[in-house]
Amino acid sequence: MAVDVAELEGLRDELIRTRARGVRVTVYEGRRLEYGSDAEMAAAIADLDRRIANASRAPAGAVRFHTSKGV
Questions:
Q1: pLDDT tens digit at each of 71 positions of the chain
Q2: The whole model's pTM is what?
């Protein structure tokens, strides 16, 4: 199931707010998430950042090769 960038950003923003308040439990769109430690929350934020970067990346364009025999 693909998650769009806006939803990933919403999840990340809510997690950052929750972490800043010093709380380990967050509820986002009716889902309750509980984290064991601050390090676990930091890892989740880093994972969301990676997913957002990958989803935001433009698709690769055409690749052109220029070859010669070196003569």
A1: 578 899 999 989 988 998 899 888 877 778 888 888 889 999 999 999 999 998 888 777 778 888 888 76
A2: 0.71
